[in-house]
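Good morning C.,

I know you're traveling, so I'll keep this short. The sequence:
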Amino acid sequence: MNEEKKLDRIYLSIIISFFNEGARIEKTIKAIDDFVRSKDYRCEVILSDDKSTDHSIDIAKKYDDEISHFRYLEPKVHEPKGKGAGIQRGIGDAKGECIMFMDADSSTAITEIDNLLPYIKDYDLVLGSRYIKEPRPYKPSYLWGISHGIKSIFEVLVFGHAKDYQAKGKQGRLRQLISRGGNFVFTLFLNQSYVDQRCGFKLYRHDAAKLLASLQTLPGFGFDTEYLAIAQKYKLKTIEVPVEWIDEAGSSKYGLKDALKEFKDMFIVLGNKMTGKYDKRHAIRKMGNLYNEYIIKK
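The tokens, ready to paste straight into the viewer:
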């Protein structure tokens, strides 16, 4: 990549939606800064606050002030709270040709993006996965999804975790049951036969990300479910790619309460599908003149 291209365009936008991550976020930010400086393409890092009440805000503002490729996004008073809302704000502000998001605790290190980027030339969505060993181009298969879901739940009940779980540091039985049970339910009701829907490490083409965020209605963890439903609606090409995930005890705030909320969100997505809220006319209404720029023709 020549010097002019490096200076003129942003290739990769990295989004972190964070809430009260003062104990962990600076370590993640420093790792991202080292990564960005090592690349011959231009990056931007968007730190999207989810109405934090701790000093993580001060950390994010410090890097915004001191380093040009970092940017702090502050939520407006009227905006909803939730991880999905933070991601939506970040995507709305992102300028990169490719747009990704990752967790503030860096369960998957930023360096893993090197495994996803080679696929972005052929796919609209590249999803990190903790449950596969080889890349898996996505093809909806209801029967496969149901059988795989039942198998995974059985393995969690018997062995404490699904046999295909690749992460370092195994989740507890309850967390695994929530994860695999949720995957099964989303397959059952939405025909989302992905191996790992909830991995917090995903990469999108610019136009795909803008479309998904524009049609997004869910502010919480359920935004992932909604994005995949919209992606299927518009037949976006998707692939799951294995990533290294270090599951440290206490590093995630996601639990049973969040899982129940996602279950409720799933029915909101079903309702949105039935009432046509992801249809072209709604996309045009929400995106206006940007529709022709961002919509993916299939």
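Safe travels,
E.
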